């Protein structure tokens, strides 16, 4: 668990609270996903001083948001741990998930332009329009 703490602190670039169980695993993992890919987890339920423990529903939503962010980052489904592993804070599947997130999380997202597969279509469309233009001008000229 100490090694896991060091990895998380280095990725988040800040010290974690001594009582990891209070936040574990929901808030820290969502923050890690947002650190690696900004806004990958749109909303994080965070415990407040008045209510220091998250409800089961809020914890579950955080876990699902984290796993969805992992999928969007390209973490293979086989490398993701189960939601119950995260909710219970077991290190077995969590370590595999964190390693996979670390591998793919540092990569920049794929470019939005040019969309893959559209280059050939654009070329075809331009050639077709030029051909139609030539045929149209010939028909008008005769």
From TrEMBL:
Keywords of this protein's UniProt record, alphabetized?
Answer: Membrane, Transmembrane, Transmembrane helix
Which InterPro entries does this chain map to?
CH_dom, CH_dom_sf
Q: SMART domains in the record, alphabetically? A: CH (SM00033)
Q: Where are the transmembrane segments?
A: 118-139
Gene3D superfamilies according to UniProt: Calponin-like domain
Transmembrane found in the keyword field: yes
What this protein is called in its record is Leucine rich repeats and calponin homology domain containing 4
Recorded source organism is: Catagonus wagneri (Chacoan peccary)
- What taxonomic lineage is listed for the species of origin? Eukaryota, Metazoa, Chordata, Craniata, Vertebrata
């Amino acid at each position: 668990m100490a090694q896991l703490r060091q990895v998380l602190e280095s990725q988040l670039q800040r010290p974690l609270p001594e009582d990891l169980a209070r936040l574990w695993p929901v808030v820290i993992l969502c923050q890690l996903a947002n650190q690696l890919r900004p806004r990958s987890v749109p909303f994080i339920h965070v415990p407040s001083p008045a209510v220091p423990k998250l409800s089961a529903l809020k914890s579950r939503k955080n876990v699902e948001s984290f796993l969805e962010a992992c999928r969007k980052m390209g973490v293979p489904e086989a490398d993701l741990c189960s939601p119950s592993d995260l909710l219970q804070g077991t290190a077995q599947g969590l370590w595999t998930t964190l390693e996979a997130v670390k591998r793919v999380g540092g990569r920049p997202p794929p470019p939005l332009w040019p969309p893959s597969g559209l280059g050939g279509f654009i070329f075809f469309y331009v050639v077709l329009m030029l051909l139609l233009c030539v045929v149209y001008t010939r028909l008008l000229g005769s």
